[in-house]
Amino acid sequence: MAFVKDMLRMWAHSWKRFISIAMITLLGVAVLTGIYAGCRDAFRSTDRFFDAQGLHDVQVLSTAGLSNGDIAALRKVNGVAKVQAERSQEVTFDLDGRKSATMQEIGTNGIDQPYLQEGRMPKKAGEIAVTRKFIRDSGKRIGSRLTVAPESASSDTSDTNDTNGADGTNETNGTDEAPSFPTKLTIVGVVLDPQNLSNPDGYSAMTSFRSTATTDYTFFAPSDGVTGTLYTSATLLVKGTAAESTFDESYENTVKQVTDRIDGTVKTDRQKARRQELLGAGNKKIVDARAEADKKFADAQSQIDANRQQFNQQVDQIVDMQASAAAAGAATNGANAGAAAAAGATTPQLDETTRETMRETIIAASPELTQAKQQLDQAQSQLNEQKASTEQTLKTKENELKTSIPQVRWYVQDRQSLGGFSALKSDLDSIQSLGNAFPIVFLLVAVMMSLTAMARMVEEDRSLIGTYVGLGYGRLAVASRYLLFALLACLIGGGLGLIAGFLGIPAFLLVVLQGMYVMPGLRLEYDWLYGSLGIALFVVGVLAATIYACVQEMRQTPASLLRPKAPRAGSRILLERIRPVWNRIGFLGKVTARNIFRFKSRLIMTVGGVAGCTALIVCGLAINDTVADLGIKQYRDIYQYDLMVVSDDSDASAMRTKVASDGRVTSSLDVRIESGDLTVAGSGDGDSGKAGSSGSESIQLVAVPEKHLSDLGEMVTLQPVSSGILGTSGVGKTGSLKLDDDGVIVAQSAASALGVKAGSKVRLTNGDGVQATAKVSAVNRNLIGSDVYVSETYYAKLFDSKDAKNTKNSKSSEDSEALTWNAMLAKLSGSDTSQTDYAESLEEDSSVMKAVSCAHMADSFKFDLMGAVVALIVALAGGLALVVLFTLANTNVSERVREMATLKVLGFFDREVHHYVNREMMILTVMGVILGLPLGRLVGGMLTMALNMPSLYFEVEVKPLSYVIAAVATMAFALLVQLFVNPVLDRIDPISSLKSVE
Predict the structure, then answer these.
(1) Are strands 787-791 and 695-704 parallel, antiparallel or unpaired?
(2) How far apart are CA 779 and CA 721, in angstroms?
(3) Nearest alpha-carbon partner for 932 in 954, 958, 895
(4) Rounded CA Rg of the chain
């Protein structure tokens, strides 16, 4: 019982150490669990929401729309649970200018159901539900009316409409009518689109560089009032995915099995079948047109023949009359009166030659008959010409039909293709990766501080330990006094850390997240396994340090423990050997220098602890500086052009004419831009950058005309790079990189994520879905987006050759056509504001698909979530620095109580004692700061390299101000600790402190 009482008394006496260990554990557990819990809560709530609303696992799009046959084929795919055919149409309306929206039919099979936030769901024709973004921008409310107009060649089946317009499929095949929605609309509800969770009312909606929307808004309408049987897309749910988290790799593997099956057989077969349907419809129209023309020509010919017959009868009648009159006259002059009578009774018989001669004479003698004959001949000639022309036109149509109907292309996409989904996932993944890295530093610091505190605690009880051991207490029983002390401190600190980690920090993160995304049903959850393991990790670390400290003392005999510990032997320090410097240092300065370097363990612990905390602060600020400069570096340094304009292939010429006529461009470069993929398959043979590396990245494939390859360097800064541990090592000279016909230039953002380097072989997929193996000639510095630059010649070699895969969709060499330059990179005159306004005005032009202003992108780029997490990490690192300095300062004082008492006996005033002790701590703190600043830069580089996010590369940037802030903050914490330590120094009693231990 006395042993227990003494143990409790000892614990109460060491309350400062207890608080220090508990606080360090609290901060470490909070960091370990807090960021993880916040991201996990967001992941789980979002996954539940997606399951409740039936967000599709796979979406199939086609350039020719989808028919009932396509939907039936998708239902037969193994692993597909549900298929929903969807119809949509792009419309325009006036809202402070021309705005566009996608009219989306609400599916009836439970897939992609909008989440009702206000009002009710539309049920009747003409009723719609809109998003909160539209309500905010338009000022309308439930009950407001809106009139829209279908866009020309609009909706997601614009390619289909163009095709139908060319061959008349819609008019011929009634089953392939494009979707059509009511135009007079009434708002009855406000909904959240599950495909886009961005918060329009928050401080940060989806950042510009990730925006994938083709229209301004989405309107949701019921099936009532929607016409047309041609579907714009098909959405699928995969069996077994509802039981998995949509953010886990197992979910991606399950979905990939189904998409591979669709790509393997269904896609190819249905593309062929759909094109045959279009060809058949075109041929049917030509056959019908020929039949109709033949009928019209036959009717016209019959009419001309009837008129000519009537004309001939009239002429023949005149001929007969003239022949009869001539015969009667001849008989009158003859001698035979009987013969004359017989001749008057019958018409004389004329041979055909005589009759024809008489006809021509009669017609020539009569202007009316001459005119009638000319009209008949002219009508016949015109009819013959029309016949020949029509036949030639139909034959031309037959010959052009196959070339006028392009190959049908299917696009099979998963949830990663949804801009809102991929943005949320990348945000949370990046934050979670930070949450996995920072606790390691906290754990190391906790172990170091625990070792320092517990070693001092055991050393103070050295004689008491010897007494207990001499009285027969086991070493384990004696050590339990300190082990239980450390365990209790860890458990209390860890318990408070779990409260902060599963409630405080997640609540803060979720507030920030809800400023960017709408997450219905969001709630905080506790993970017993992860929380217990978090505490156990710090308990093991602290107990290991305590066991080490106990073993170091208890391995001695009781007699040795009962005697005072021999003072450390004096030794010269390096500074003493530098005589010119040492001789000019005062007495107290020499004492301070000897004390700093004589106690090496204290030197290592203090410098190491302070350096670790300073490094954490620098690391957090480095990430903040890196993210803040991404937009400026990319859109002002790397991209030298001011404007990028993209159009459809058919509008490329009109787009260039429009831009040229505006007179704003000072220089330009025509290019072809396609959306594609870059894939690296793990082979382990060294051809793909990293042995065994694999992965895929969405890219922007930029083809450059062969005659203007050298002009690319004027629009984009071509600078070769090689990734290093600091994030920006290996940057080559600007302009030293040239695009040629031997390979492609890959953006650093994609190369870093996939482990690609110069000389690697990669698989490229172009905008037509054609795949080919390409050589990487260089990796170009690029931070935002994943551009892959290729020359015109190398593009043709890759995607027009017989070696390219998916040759069913590729062109043969003899049928290959020149590339259509559907985009323009241009430098503009005028200010940033005028350039932004000009880009916005271009998007209103019908020939422009997208216009991007680099000035606008540089100014609007934000990453608010990362900034909030960095602020949290810096605050926690500052708290850790404060606790570390407090622990080290109190340990330093407790070790040197007799020394402080001696100084007081020698006549030192309190202020002089303060200066004597605090000067050593400040010097050690400065040493820790000096070591921590470059260490923080190093750790920041490693962490940012670990942040592999889609289309982003974090080039580490630490501003001088960040170093100053980290150093000043750490020194400020050291000065704050002095305010707590000085009263302790004042309370030292010289008499009791200098009593002999024995």
Answers:
(1) parallel
(2) 6
(3) 958
(4) 44
Q: Which residue has the tokens 């696992």?
A: 57
Backbone phi and psi for residue 927, each to the nearest 5 degrees, phi listed first: -60, -40
| C-beta separation of 703 from 791 below 8 A | yes
Report the pLDDT value the prediction gives residue 789, as an integer from 0 to 100. 93
Q: Pick from 539, 492, 574, 605: which is nearest to 885 by CA?
A: 605
Whether 235 contacts 452, CB under 8 Å:
no
The tokens 């199939």 sit on which residue?
Answer: 60
Helix extents (H) in 209-248: none
Contact indicator for 552, 451 with CB cutoff of 8 Å: no
DSSP 3-state assignment of 771? Answer: strand
Pairing of strands 127-131, 184-192: parallel
Nearest to 606 by CA among 886, 986, 328: 886
Contacts of residue 4, defined as CB under 8 A and 6 or more positions apart, other chains included, come to none
Beta-bridge partners for 66: 231
Structure tokens at 889: 């300062």
d(CA 76, CA 266): 9
How far is residue 13 from each of residues 7, 90, 319, 487, 737, measured CA to CA in Å? Answer: 10, 76, 148, 17, 69
∠ CA 34-36-42, rounded to 5°: 100
CA–CA distance, 863 with 427 (Å, rounded to integer): 9
Q: Residue 235: beta bridge partners? A: 59, 84
CA-based diameter of the chain, in Å? 191
Q: How far apart are the first and last CA of the chain?
A: 26
Q: Which two tokens stand for residue 801?
A: 């050759």
Instruction: Give the type of residue at 92.
Output: T
Q: Using CA atoms, how far apart are residues 245 and 51, in angstroms rounded to an integer? A: 10
Position 74 scores a pLDDT of 92
Phi, psi angle pair for 399, to nearest 5°? -70, -35
**What average pLDDT values come out for the chain (998 residues) when binned by 10 residues?**
84 85 88 87 91 92 86 91 91 78 89 92 92 88 90 44 35 61 92 86 47 69 89 92 89 90 84 82 83 85 83 78 76 54 55 76 78 82 84 80 75 80 78 76 79 82 85 88 91 91 87 82 87 88 87 84 72 79 82 79 82 86 84 88 86 87 89 84 44 63 90 88 54 72 88 82 81 88 88 87 39 53 90 88 82 86 72 84 84 81 86 86 90 87 68 82 92 88 85 67
Question: Which helix (H) or strand (E) segment is 633 a member of?
Answer: none
Q: What's residue 451's pLDDT? A: 81
